[in-house]
Amino acid sequence: MRILVTGGAGFIGSNVVDGYVAAGHDVSVVDDLSAGAPANVSRRARFHRADVRSGELDAIFAAERPELVSHHAAQVSVRRSVEEPIHDAEINVLGSLNVLEAVRQHNIKSKAAGANMVRSLVIVTSDKCYENREWVWGYRENEPMGGHDPYSTSKGCAELLMSSYNQSFGEPPAASARAGNVIGGGDWAKDRLIPDAVRAFAAGQVLEIRNPHAIRPWQHVLEPLAGYLLLAEQLFDKAAAVAGGVPWGAAGVEVCAGAVCPSNKLPSASRQSAAASASGSSPTKTPRWTSTSPGRR
Ligand SMILES: NC(=O)c1ccc[n+]([C@@H]2O[C@H](COP(=O)([O-])OP(=O)(O)OC[C@H]3O[C@@H](n4cnc5c(N)ncnc54)[C@H](O)[C@@H]3O)[C@@H](O)[C@H]2O)c1
Hints:
42% of the residues lie in helices and 13% in strands. The protein is α/β, with parallel strands linked by helices. The protein has one domain: NAD(P)-binding Rossmann-like Domain (Rossmann fold, 3-Layer(aba) Sandwich). Nicotinamide-adenine-dinucleotide binds at residues 7, 9-13, 31-36, 51-53, 72-76, 91, 95, 124, 126, 179, 181-182, 189.
């Protein structure tokens, strides 16, 4: 399959590229290298240095003719989003909208030409996309979008845009994945616990913990990686049943197995009951597969 990954030079995106390359797919990457590094990109993938906000996407889509698009490119720092909220929204909101629209326009042209079209689109957001109620329970995929900081809000906005494209155009089906905190090799981002620790220890400095009383779950990058690949596969094969938003807590693959079942196209009462039956709990209790509280990074 021909697959295009945005943000494929970054921490999670490069792991996703490696996963698809290892599975024998034909992979291309779009990344502006604002945070990622060329060395992260598999030599077996084609690399396009481009901004997801730019019109360059049209030519890249025409050249690569992807059948699956996995969108990971983002401004990922909560602190930077607070310092530069417009910059954050430009990338996470308008950049995501530009990807949605580039896919749609590409498919209109491809259909007219009888060429391969994008058949599914995975949009990676975050468990921070939910309205943060500061409660101890997890969040279900039908909880309202929100966010206490510009990063979280921009991820919620990307979710709403994706949902509006699903409702307005239907094709290609899109699904979002809302991972919690991820650790693993290749992460050198600022303001993240483990990269900060490694940098401090390498420099012989004392590690400063910004939120020493925070308790949060982590998942290894292989967990969401397996989930993203499974979601893409499910979306490709059974689009109508899967399109929508999927939370990805520390339970990883288990989350995926439950969350692909309820469709966001169901009326909310049915969704609650589908969610409850998937988890074996009442809708007012925490389902087994929900993401964890979207606390601050
Ligand atoms: N790391 C986590 O704990 C975590 C948790 C939940 C969700 N996510 C989401 O996963 C995705 C990847 O995050 P990551 O941790 O790998 O971060 P990262 O910074 O390592 O990767 C992001 C990549 O996007 C690229 N990029 C940024 N702006 C761009 C633009 N305008 N055009 C093209 N490329 C651009 C960067 O160069 C970088 O390579 C993001 O959408 C993030 O919100 C991450």
